[in-house]
Structures are given as structure tokens and as C-alpha cells.
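Exercise 7. Predict the joint structure of the components listed below.
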Amino acid sequence: MKERLRAALRAALTQRLGVPPAELPDFSVEVPNLESHGDFATNAAMLLAKRLRKAPREIAGLLGPALQAAPEVDRVEVAGPGFLNVFLKADAWRALLWDVLAAGADYGRSARERPARVMVEFVSANPTGPLHFGHGRGAVVGDVVARLLAFSGHQVQREFYVNDAGKQVRNLVLSMVHWLRKDRGLPGELPADGYHGAYVADLARAAPAELTRFLPGEPDEASLVALERFGVAAMLDAIRRDLDDFGVAMDRFSSERELLGSTRLAELLQELQARGVYEERDGARWFLADRFGDEKPRVLIKSDGSHTYFANDLAYHLDKLRRGFERLINVWGADHHGYVPRMRAALQALGQPPEALEVILVQMVSLLRDGQPVVLSKRAGDIVTLREVFEEVGRDAARFFFLLRGSDSQMEFDLELAKRRSMDNPVYYVQYGHARLCSILARARERGLPVPGLESRGALSLAPLELPEELRLVKKMAALAEVVRRAADSCMPHQVVYYLQELTADFHSYYTTYGKTSPILGGPAERVAARLVLVLALRQVVANSLGLLGVSAPERMESLGAEGEEG
RNA sequence: GCGCCUGUAGCUCAGCUGGAUAGAGCAACGGCCUUCUAAGCCGUGGGCCGCGUGUUCGAAUCACGCCAGGCGCGCCA
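Solution:
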């Protein structure tokens, strides 16, 4: 509808006001904040005031009739400084309910004229331990951004980059060796950057005997590598399980080590060399990143001949582009932000579009228990794992909480609050909306009331839906596709959360306001039928939205009991 | 010192690419359950949108400068 109004405005501007098509202003067509300002409003007249040397309201008066021509339009008003407010006929809105039922689980999905091939790389935690609490936010944000992109018509691939080649995995295996020796009473110390957690000892003890034959001696390189592979594989398995149980899917785990084995890096270095942006200094090899907007040159090959993490990661990003992905979305912790200009510089230096790389920087999450920060001692190796958190508060609540704030705001995650089954907890509010809708339908069937389906389209009139609250709900449902597209394009999944909260709030309000005077299942049969169509459509929209967040849509929720201190 | 993020109600945060009278939840206070789940609803109070200048028909939103908090500035990952 928005697009049709836009087209009508463009036509009116060129034909009635003689504005050349090339000089059309970039006017808006928006849903206004106030309902009295119509279903849609445009600022076109104000933008043209200067050029046409006319008062905005006068121009608006000329444009109005053009919009009026559309069959869905009820009336058009000139308002305020020169806004055009467009009101649609109620019937035009009501018809949308059938569209919702027809589309079902696909309602809100968009098709793109030109879908982009998008890679979302996220989590990418070192395979040296289980996912900890801090990984949760990036995991959910990446997961939902991927869902949103796919639902809004793009082709999406999700990947986890496995840093299985560097110093960290070496620290892991050395830590394992330390624990093995300790078990046997052999001398030795944990390496300075070693891993303290008890899980490392468990991991070491789980190693098959043939991998620990070097004991009681010191391991040679081959033994170390073998044990390292074992440790990494086991940790990666644990990470996969954590993600799986948290509702986060990956299409592929890309191994840094395997990528190293390919010739990508060598080619890349040659290419940089050929372009004259690669130099040797002090025994190391540098990429002259400062020529491409970064602060300073960056080392690719260290003086000991090993690669920096950056070198390998750059090879990986190039690999993504070669595999045909046009948009590379990475979800990184905000502490890695300094890395962005470096990667962009390198892509640019290699003749790739630097803007292909989009980085979602997620800010820190502080963990609270009952309002007090949870203090963690890194030295003692105590970490709060992601699994502990979602097992404590529940997967739905954990996911919802991580999505509750924009990625670039730091946030607090209060365990007690997330667990609380009360009004403070927004996830239950939304889920309860869905359960309530289901319960109305169940009650209707119990009472033997016919629940209309799509087959009633055409036969059943929706005209009895005349309450302002009912029309408001329909209008909000109409916005889903645009909300999803917007959230996807801007990588802001929290927008869907807010949408969902508004939608369910409108429903709860409608339900309660009329619960006594005009209950959904009361009154004339035609009205009940029409309202059941509204309920069916609402349930679909709520379910689809929850689905996009990876949060379950329960059909019923256990009642807490009104007189409940218990529980 | 330089760079990135943030600063909006008592608290936690929305506010889309500049639009009309700045919103939500929680907290506080007052109401609503014989009838579709009260995990709900209705109402009241609460604001220098960090500060200042600029851009323009119009700024919480854009630009610049300050102030405050967080993070980063390795031949670490």
C-alpha cells in the first residue's frame, strides 16, 4: 500500500505540478505516530515548497485529489505544516486478515528482486573451552539476523570460524599436558597463558591412552599435535552442543587450519606484493594498512615466520568473497572494533569492495544476580558458561533477554529477573499473548462455535470488526514484513522484539477492555466468526514473529494461580 | 593522546533514512477477576532528550566542539 501511495504521489508531482522525474524529492510515506494523523502520512508537499515557491499547504491541496483516486483510500487531509494524511477504508484493512491466513507461516516474508548472497559469521569462539555467558549475545544476535535476512528474501549462509591453528589451541594442549603430569605427580607448571578451568583437566583425562604415551616424558611435537587435535575436536563438539541446545544453527564450521593448508594465503600475499602494499621491516612482513584508512601498518607474517591471526582471517574473508558472497556480516564483540578498519583496508587493497564487510559490534553484557554483579575471577578459571545461564533461566528467556537491547548498547542481564515468572519478565508477556489466542480458539471449539478457515474468504464478512482496537490490530499486523525488512537491513533484531511487544500489548488491551461488555466469543454469530478470523490471524503473526526470534510460541501457559505465594 | 560505542522519566531502555504534542517496561500511587487464563487491563504522577554552537520550514535524530562512562590502540587472538 505504501508503495502504491508513493507511486501515486510521484505521478501527481510530475503530471500536475510539472516536477521533472529526475528532480523528485525523496519524500517519505510513513505510518504517523498519532492515529488522528491517518494511516499514512507524507511530507512531499513540504519538501517542494521552496522549489515551487508555494506554501506547503497549498501544494498539499493540489496533491490530495490524486491520492484520493486509489480505491482503498477513504479520505485525504491536509494537516499541520503541510502533511498529507491518508485514511484508508476499513474494508481495505480487514481484507488483510485473509492474506495472513493464506500466507500462514510465510506471512511477513518478502521476496527481493535481487536477493543478496549473505554470509553471517558469528560466535567463532576459540575451541579451547565451552561457550561462556558472554558469547550468548553474539550468538543470538547473529542467529536472529540470519533468520531475518532469510525471511526478508536474501540467501543466507551461517558460519562459525574455528580458530584451530594458533597460539590459543597450543595453550590448550599445553594446559592439558600440565594436568596429565600433575595427575601422575610429575613436575611442571601451567603455562603462563594456560587454561585454568577444571574442564581442561577433565578433557585431558578423557584423552585416549595412545595420545598420552609420551608420559612420563615431555611430548614431542607430533604427540602435541595429536593431543591438540583431540582436545580441539572435543571442545568443538561441546560448543556445537551448546549452540544446538540454545537454538542456534550453523551451516558450516570453517577451520582456520584447513584454510591455511590451501594456497589462499600465499596468493593473497603475492597479490599484496604486486600492488606494492606489502613490505618487510624488522624481519616481519607488513601490510601497509595506513594507506587505506587504517591507523598504521599491520603485521601479516611475524619475524619467526608464523602468521598473525589477521593474515589467516583475511584469507578467510577473501575465501568468503570467492565463494560468491556479496555481503559479509560479522558479529564481533565490541572489544574487536579496532579490527574493522584493518580488515576493510585489506579488502580494499586487494581490489574488493570494502563496504561488503558489515560488522555488528555487540557491546558487553554484565551478568547480575538480584541486581548485584556476578564477580568472576579469571585467575581461578571460573567462568559462567552459556549453558549454565540458559539452563537456569530457560532458553526462551535467555534468547529474549539478549535481544531486548540494541547491539550497540551495553546491557545488563539479571538472572533473577530473567527467571522470574512475573510481569517484570517481558518474554512471558509476549508468550502469554500467544497462549491466550490459542486458548480462545480452544474455548470456541469446546463451545461448538465454528472456527472459520481460509475457505470462508469471500463468504464471510469481516465488517463486524468495527472496534477501533480491532482495526488497530489489523494495521499493526500489516506492518510485519516491513518491520522484518528494516530489522534485517539494519541488522537490528531488537526491532522485532519491540514490534512484538506492541502487538501483544494491543491484543491484551483489546481482550481485557471488552472481556465483560463484548467478549470475543459472545454476541451475534457473524461477529464471533469475524473475530475468530482476527484471532487466527493474530496468532499467526505472533507465532511468526516469535519464530523469527527463535523463541517458542506456547499454546498454553501454566497458570501461576492468583493467590500464589507458592511456586 | 588517538579511535569506536553510549548518554532520553527514579531504574532498564525504544525512538527507523530529520517531521506533527518524546514513548515502553519496571518502580510509586489508585482502580478492574461469578462469564474467552489477572503471567492480563485501566488510570495518575514523573523529562534541560549530557552541555553548547551550527545546518533548515522543522533537530532526541545531522555536523562541529566540550563533558561523563565503557571499550580499544601487540610481531595476542
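Discussion. Residues 167-237 of chain A form one domain.
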